[in-house]
Amino acid sequence: MRIGWILMLGLCVVLWAFAQSGQAPRSGAKGSSQKDDGRIPIAQAAQELEKKFAVKILVDPGLTARVNPPQAETLERALDELVRQVSGVVWRKVYTNKVLGEEPQPERVINAVRALLNIDLGGVLVVDQRANTLNSFVANYPLTPGFEQGLEQMQPPFSAKPLYVILEPRPRALTELKGTRLEQFAKAQQQLLELLARMTPEERAQALRAGFQMWMNADPELRYQMMFEGLRMSFEWWQSLPPDQQQQMMEMGRKWFEQYFGGGDGMP
């Protein structure tokens, strides 16, 4: 039976996505507690603040984290409470130029705010000599009292009604893969693990199901080689373990088998 357990552990290594994808439906109590723990998507929490304080809040579409609804009595404190729950996320109060009959597109506003937050210079002036126009940026400019009252008198005028933007200033985009194919594969795997770690349990389960389906749709020869290499590495890894760790892994494999396939009669 020990060989059987080793084979099963090898299959766990190869079909880890399948094992993970089965957790959601088979652990109903745990899954329901995750959904009923009071947390909601950050975009939904922002919508509730919009209704409560009668303001416009834009949330970066890339943010999918779940948060506890803020309980603060003021908008600024509620936004602080909201973004504090998600690492690397901030909120900013934004004023846009006033254009009669037009509303700024949320995506353009979010992209503009992110671009400004990522400018490393303290200030810059960009002049188009032919058009006789100027684009300017000044970082950390002191905010004067009564700032909002003068916005509509500026040239060009700005809307005195602010937008509130929630975003991650430096989103962790997948970097360009360079090097040999083996190096590219290693980098891609590392990026995949980092992305999975940032997902909610629900998102992770969906992603792993999709990954397993892609594996099932892959070329059969590729799948067979992956299974063979996975089993071979599992045997080598098993032989490198001390007896006590082998026993622990066998116990873990037995519990996993009973959880997903039931029974366990006749097993040591």
Keywords:
268 residues, 11 helices, elongated
Number of strands: 7
Helix content: 40-55%
Find the structural class using helix and strand composition. Answer: mainly alpha
Which sequence of strands runs across the widest sheet? 2-7-4
Q: Roughly how many Å apart are the termini?
A: 7 Å
Please state the overall shape, judged from the principal axes of the Cα atoms: elongated
Unreliable stretches: 1-7, 13-35
Rg over CA atoms: 27 Å
Mean pLDDT: 77
Strand content: 5-15%
Q: How many structural domains? A: 2
Largest beta sheet, briefly?
A: 3 strands, mixed
The ordered string of helix (H) and strand (E) elements is HHHHEHEEHEHEEEHHHH
Number of H/I helices? 11
How is this structure best described in words?
The protein contains 11 helices and 7 strands. It is mainly alpha-helical and about 270 residues long. The chain folds into 2 domains: about 120 residues, no CATH class; about 130 residues, no CATH class. The strands form 3 sheets. It has a 3-stranded mixed sheet with strand order 2-7-4, sandwiched between helices. Strands 1-3 form a two-stranded antiparallel ribbon. Strands 5-6 form a two-stranded antiparallel ribbon. Helix 1 packs across helix 10, helix 1 packs across helix 11 and helix 5 packs antiparallel against helix 6. It starts with a helix and ends in a 7-residue tail after the last helix. The N terminus is likely disordered.
Would you spell out the secondary-structure blueprint of this structure?
Elements: H1 2-14, H2 16-21, H3 23-26, H4 28-35, E1 40-41, H5 42-53, E2 56-59, E3 66-67, H6 75-83, E4 90-94, H7 106-117, E5 123-128, E6 133-138, E7 163-167, H8 181-198, H9 201-216, H10 220-240, H11 243-261
Parallel strand pairs: 2-7
Antiparallel strand pairs: 1-3, 4-7, 5-6
Helix pairs in contact: 1-10, 1-11, 5-6
